[in-house]
Amino acid sequence: MSRIIGIDLGTTNSCVAVLDDRGQPTILAAADGERTTPSWVSFSPTGQATVGTRARRQGVTNASSTVFGAKRLIGRKVNADDVSWFARLAPFRIVAAPNGDAWVRVNGVPISPQEIGAHILRRLRQIAEEALGEPVTRAVVTVPAYFDDAQRQATRDAGQIAGLDIVRILNEPTAAALAYGAHRVKEGRRVIAVFDLGGGTFDISIMSVDNGIFEVLATGGDTALGGEDWDRRFLERLVDEIFDQHRVDLTAIPMAMSRLREACEEAKKALSVAQNTTIALPFLANDHNGAPINYELTISRERVEQLTQDLLDRLEAPCTRALADAGLGAGDVEEVLLVGGMTRWPAVQRVVERIYGKKPSKGANPDEVVACGAAAYAGILTGEADYAALLDVTPHDIGIRVGDSGFATVLPRNSMLPVRARRIFATSNDNQKFVSIELFQGESQDVSKNRKLGQITLDDLPPGPAGSVRVELVITVDVESLLSVVARELRTGRQTTVTIRPSGGLSQREIVEIITRRREESTTGGEGDVVSGRVRVTTREHMISTPEPDEPEPGKP
């Protein structure tokens, strides 16, 4: 069988790795020597897609048709606060799919984030095949530990569209710990924290490592916090200052915004090692008199830190909550591993040191360590690498709707997988004929703010006064996060069972249509270029295997 590659599908940059002949993870570079691929996809008017550095360059001349940061949209609803904020300064349009998911519109055609991700995955697959000289069809792909089931399934869907069999979805912090070699330390049980701040997401995982067994004790994070937020905050301030000076709104000039966005990112990188840097953008735009605006600014690291202090403040709460969920104090953590390019920012490192009371480790390239860990885990799956067992946890609470808008937790977050939980409910009406139980995932006490997973209905209940008929609900989650639900009436033993498979927003039929259309339309357009096959969503499929009843909702369990 073909080798299994490891892929870090990142918000800003992506990376692919594989085990070499010595059993060590190695990054696979593109033909031009690039070890990471920008997660950018640019579309021509005919639908031809360019991926990577070439796409990023087109962000200046073809801004409205060049998509970046799609990982922040995958499996998300268009009305989410952070999606709306992202849309404010994005040069491309973010629109609502029929099911409310956040999609992008390019050249008048709506495209799902899964399709954008598939273009990037296909490019990484191409890099791997060119480097290895053999076909590649299987991969371990990493995701933020705090991704919910829908976001994980959407990532799998992207792999299917790209022609990749994603044999395992692996949490990024766990992959990083593997790459650091934490499982090879033999002196006994160690508790480590993996602090992962990438381009678009923040993860914190507390785990113990003991004789090759990784046990995730707790996870936390923020899927709407990353390096791009620092860039955007910097960009917003400069846009405001230019408007104040010249009365020109750059947000209406896509080419100027793209140049300024790139300059902000480069300035941030420069300030990670220097105290001051200069932004120089001649002929950025024209003022109302037609005169060119030659923008130049010298900015200090201190000023950028002041502009982004609230972003730094958001890092602490997930860290302290993860420690509390693990039942540990900061002093119990023996080592903090840094992952993600944004951890190069000195202020971020100071936050880490303040929270945990120790300097973090910097023994690996934060841009490449996750891909290396994915390759290491691929080697474990094929028997090529050191054995290590991974014991993971549920990232979010799983529970049910109670009353009109309440949420009752049945399976708390950070429960070790596999896991089973039981809860008993009673009918709320006399002679109630059936109960319909809705399951949700999330942390809010307002059920409308959590993600609906599915619904289970148990009918033909025996007659009796309210509260006399008791129903047991059993929820089981396996190591692949597959959710099974059983509802059983305790007196008669009558029960119903559903398996709730995560939905990434696209039905299987829609995925097949996308793949079929791409096969029919695709032509080679050079390295990293493909023709995008796109399809509008017109139907939806239920996430559970049995249909929801047409009857009005009964009394709440």
The CATH topology label of the largest domain is Nucleotidyltransferase, domain 5
Largest sheet: 6 strands, mixed
The tally of helices reads 13
What is the terminal separation in angstroms? 50 Å
Reading off the top of the CATH hierarchy, the class of the largest domain is best stated as Alpha Beta
What does this structure look like?
- The N and C termini lie far apart (50 Å).
- The strands form 7 sheets. Strands 1, 2, 3, 4, 11 and 12 form a 6-stranded mixed β-sheet that branches. A 5-stranded mixed β-sheet has the order 18-13-14-15-19. Strands 7-5-6-28 form a 4-stranded antiparallel β-sheet.
- Helix 3 packs across helix 4 and helix 5 crosses helix 12.
- With 557 residues, it is α+β, with helices and mostly antiparallel strands.
- The protein has 13 helices and 28 strands.
Present the secondary structure layout:
Blueprint: E1 4-8, E2 13-19, E3 25-27, E4 37-38, E5 40-43, E6 48-51, H1 53-61, E7 66-68, H2 81-89, E8 93-96, E9 102-106, E10 109-111, H3 113-132, E11 138-143, H4 149-161, E12 165-171, H5 172-180, E13 190-197, E14 202-210, E15 213-222, H6 227-246, H7 254-271, E16 276-286, E17 292-300, H8 301-307, H9 309-313, H10 316-326, E18 335-339, H11 346-356, H12 369-382, E19 389-391, E20 398-402, E21 406-411, E22 419-426, E23 435-441, E24 451-458, E25 470-477, E26 483-489, E27 495-500, H13 508-521, E28 529-531
Parallel strand pairs: 1-11, 11-12, 13-18, 15-19
Antiparallel strand pairs: 1-2, 2-3, 2-4, 5-6, 5-7, 6-28, 8-9, 9-10, 13-14, 14-15, 16-17, 20-21, 20-23, 22-25, 23-24, 25-26, 26-27
